[in-house]
Amino acid sequence: MSSGWINSFLKRVFGDIENPLTNQFSENRLRPPGAVEEKRFMALCIRCNRCLEVCPYGSIRRAGLGTTMGTPYVLPLEKACYLCMACCRLCPTGALDRRLSNPEAVAMGKARIDTSICYSHLFMDHDMLPENAGQKIGALCNTCYNVCPLPDKAIALKQNLFPVILDGCVGCGICVERCPTRPRRAINVIPAGMGRVDEAGFHFSKARKHFESTIGVEKDGTSGALKGEQLLEQKSLIDGAKDQPNFKFPYQVPKSIEGWD
Amino acid sequence: MYGPYRRTVQLIAFALMFAIPLLNLYEIYVVTGTFYAVNIGGLGIADPVVILQAIFASGELTVPLLGAALFPLFIALFFGRIWCGWMCPYHLLADAAGLLRRRFRGKGSRLARDERLVVADSFKANTWRYGFLAVGTLAAGAIGIPVLNYVSAPGILSTEAMILIKERLVSLEFSFIALLFLLELLVFPRFWCRLFCPTGAFIAVFRLPFTLGVGTSIRTPKMPCCKENRCSGACPMGLAPFREGNNLLCTNCGLCIDACRAAEGPGRLRFRGFQES
C-alpha cells in the first residue's frame, strides 16, 4: 500500500484527492540506498537517525523543519553516498531494505548529464567544429567517469571522449560531488520516483546562494568569482602557448619526508 | 531507598544519549541509534508507539516492525512504565524542573506549584493522554506520516544530543523541548508526562495484574494511613499511591515508597512481589 490505509479508505469515499502533506516530499531529495518508495518511506521511517549515525562518510543528513523533519537524505552536491551499505542493515522498520547488500542493486536515482555545460560535451560540440578552432570553452574532463564506483556499468565514455549514463547507474552521486563545473554541476542525480526530470539539481539555487555568500562577487568585476559566460571567457584565455599562470600554493613543499631516505 | 538508584540509572541513560554518537564517531558500532530506536549489540529496541504509528501509517504488519517493539513491550509487561520513571531523559528534565520549583518556592516566586496539577484527577488525566495517543495514531494512519514522532520528547532530546555531538549544532526541534521545560517550570507542572506523552501512554497499556506496581500492606485502604499523606505528596504524577498503586499513570519511580518509609502510619507501601528490607 502506497500510503496509509485510512488514506486509501478516505480516497474511496471522497475520490482521488492529493494529500497536501505527502506530495511535497516526493521529489528532489536523494534517499539513502535501499530506501523504499517515497510515500512508504515516509510512513515507515521512524526518524531514529540510526542510518545517519552509522554512515562512516557523513553522507547522510537529517532533514530540517517540515513534514520530512528528521528523515535521512543525501545531498550529493556536498557529500555523495559511497555505497558502503552500512545503513540498510541497521534500519529497524524496513524503510531501508535490510536485505540489500549489493551496491549494484541500489536504486537511489539516475544521473543525468547536462550537455550544455559539461566540459567534455562542450569540447565535442563546440571546440571540435572547424569554425570554432582555437576557442577553447570545453575540456576533456571525464571526472565523472573516473570517480564512478561502477565504471562501464553506470557510465561509459562514448568514443572514449565524452561520458554517457548507462542503465546500471545507481544514483550514488559521487560524480555530482566531484563534477568540476560551478556553480551548477553538469551532472545531477534525479532521485528515484521523482516526477519531473527537469528538476534535477533542485538544490542548485541553494548551492548558488551558498557559493556566492562564501566567495563574494565583487561589484566592479575585477576580482572575485566569475560566473557563466564570463567564466568560460576567462578560461578560454588560458593557453599553453602563452605564459604559464602563477598559482599560489597555501602550503610549503617539505624538504624531506619523515621515514623516507 | 530507591531514590539514589533511580537517579543513577536516569543519569546513566542521559549520558548514554551523548555516549552513543560519541562511540559511533570513533567507529564503534556496538550501540547505535537514538531513543526512537536503539540497537544494542544486535538487539533492536524501538519505541513501541513509534512502531505503532509506522504500522498505521504504512498499513503493513511485518515481522521486523513487530520484532523491534517486542523487547520494550516485554519489559513493560513485567516492570510497567519503568522506562518513564527510571530511564526517560525527558522525565529527568521534568524532575529537574520539579527540583527548581521546590528550590525557589517562595512568596515572590512565579514558578508553578507542585500541588497544582493541571488536570489533577487521574482518570481525567488518563483520558486526556489516551485521547491524544488515539488522535495522533489515527492522524498517522490518515496522512501516512508518523506524526507523533514530531512530539516524542525523549526521541527529540536524544536526536538533539546526537546531532550536537555529530554535527555540533542544535536544530529547531530543541525549541520544543525548551518550551515544554519552561511550561513545566512556570505554568503546568508535570503536564507532558501526565497528559500527553504518547510513549508513556502506550507502554502503560500492557499493565497486567502481575506487572510490577506499588502495593500497600493495608488490605482495603480508603484513607491515607499517616496524617501528612506523605505518599500522595511525593507522587510526581499526582496519584494517591495508597489506593492507586496500579494506576496507568504510575511510573514505578518508588518516590512514594521512600516517602512512606519516613512516615509513621501503620501501613507500608512497597513494590508488589518485593519483600520490605
Q: Can you walk me through this structure?
A:
The complex is a heterodimer of chains A (261) and B (277). With 261 residues, chain A is α+β, with helices and mostly antiparallel strands. Chain A has two domains: 101 residues, Alpha-Beta Plaits (2-Layer Sandwich), CATH 3.30.70; 89 residues, Alpha-Beta Plaits, CATH 3.30.70. Chain A contains nine helices and six strands. In chain A, strands 1-2 form a two-stranded antiparallel ribbon. In chain A, strands 3-6 form a two-stranded antiparallel ribbon. In chain A, strand 4 and strand 5 form a beta hairpin. The termini of chain A are far apart. Chain B is mainly alpha-helical and 277 residues long. Chain B has two domains: 209 residues, no CATH class; 65 residues, Alpha-Beta Plaits (2-Layer Sandwich). Helices cover 55% and strands 6% of the residues of chain B. In chain B, the strands form two sheets. In chain B, strands 1-2-3 form a three-stranded antiparallel beta sheet. In chain B, helix 1 crosses helix 7, helix 2 runs antiparallel to helix 3 and helix 2 packs parallel to helix 6. The longest helix of chain B has 23 residues. Chain B is globular. The model of chain B has no long low-confidence stretch (mean pLDDT 88). At the A-B interface, helix 1, helix 2 and helix 3 of A face helix 1, strand 1, strand 2, helix 2 and helix 3 of B.
**Strand tally of chain B:** 5
> What are the segments of chain B in which pLDDT stays under 50 over at least 5 consecutive residues?
none
> How many individual domains of chain B?
2
Q: State the shape of chain A.
A: globular
* Count of DSSP strands of chain A: 6
Shape of chain B: globular
| Major protein interface | A-B, 38 and 46 residues
Number of helices of chain A: 9
Q: Cα distance, first to last residue of chain A?
A: 66 Å
What's the structural domain tally of chain A? 2
Largest sheet of chain A: 2 strands, antiparallel
- In quaternary terms, these chains amount to heterodimer
The percent range for helix content of chain A is 25-40%
Q: Give the topology string of chain B: H per helix, E per strand.
A: HEEEHHHHHHHHHEHHHE
* Mean pLDDT over the full residue set of chain B: 88
Largest sheet of chain B: 3 strands, antiparallel
Task: Output mean pLDDT of chain A.
Answer: 75
How much helicity do the residues of chain B have? 40-55%
Strand content of chain B: 5-15%
Strand order of the largest sheet of chain A: 1-2
